[in-house]
Amino acid sequence: MTPPASRRASFLPFAVTAATALLVSATATPAAAQTPTQPLSAADNVEVLGIDEGLPAAFGAAPAKESLADSVIEDVLGLRATELSTLDAQDRDVRVDIREATDGAAFGVAIVTAPEVEGEDPYAWLFAAELDGAVWSVGLEGTEEFSEILADSSLLDTEERETVAASADPNRISAMAYTGVGLPFSIGTSMVMTGGPHGFSGGPPYSSVDFAGGNGQARAARGGYAYSLCDGWTRVIHDNGYSTDYYHLENYQWLPGNNVGTGHYLGTQGNSVCAGGSSTGAHIHFALRGYTDPNAAGWYVALNGLTLGGWTFVEGASYGGYAYRNGVGTVYPGGWMYNYGF
Length: 342
What we know:
Blueprint: H1 18-27, E1 46-50, H2 64-79, H3 84-89, E2 94-102, E3 105-112, E4 123-132, E5 135-140, H4 144-151, H5 158-167, E6 190-198, E7 208-212, E8 217-219, E9 224-230, E10 233-237, E11 242-247, E12 256-260, E13 265-268, E14 284-290, E15 299-300, E16 307-308, E17 311-314, E18 322-325, E19 329-331, E20 336-338
Parallel strand pairs: 1-2
Antiparallel strand pairs: 2-3, 3-4, 4-5, 6-7, 6-20, 7-14, 8-13, 9-10, 9-12, 10-11, 11-14, 14-15, 16-17, 17-18, 18-19
Helix pairs in contact: 4-5
GO molecular function, one term: hydrolase activity
Protein name: Murein DD-endopeptidase MepM/ murein hydrolase activator NlpD
Keywords: Hydrolase, Signal
């Protein structure tokens, strides 16, 4: 093994000349001159958005916004077991959007975008963070840390904070025996199921269904707190251990945490790809996420065997499968589906 440069002089022969010693000394790189590690937030495939207000004026050697973004990115990379360089090679970016900050805590959205090609999907989380000494502690939506940090903070309005923290806590709420979730259009109306169960994040679980036709309007499948993740992608966190995603929306209503009821207008079917992925033909990409399901762990939930809008879904090949309702019949991709509610 070759000793480090700073220790090489002690291994030179005793009769070394002064000139040689000076040469050896000159080749050693002083610690202070070494290139510092680049912050994650400075990477070419990272974008940091949102507010500065409410963050500390200074935070050690790095700006508070950069330091917070670094901690959020580190959690995202850890949860997805990946690296920024790997995401960059996949043409994926990371966005950190800081929405609110107060009293040493912060709340926002973290997104990993997808290339705009078929079969690639983005993924996103709400996050909560708090100052812990000289470090930001971060919790991503669906983790115990998220719920604990949010519940103990003064972020958001009191009712919103308490409801979202409890609803997204994997330990505090048991999922209901049925999903208690409808379909992404008005109860008592119909749309065409253009795509059967398929993935939202590059493969299984098959958590998503595509709808089009009808009056074209996307509406909340159950009440809850609605968050615009980007301009065309909404997530509604419900009170029963589930949340629902609505993607590709146009004529979009921006919702920064509004308490919405079942059937609340979210936008219209479209081809928006605000976080990447692809869309062929205007539609609503509708997906189910779970917090208390041990198989979901705050992630997308397989629809196979679950009932939404009065229909029980059965998966097959991606975008295939079907849905059935006893006494009514079976709907395959391309068929009309009536929303019976829940």
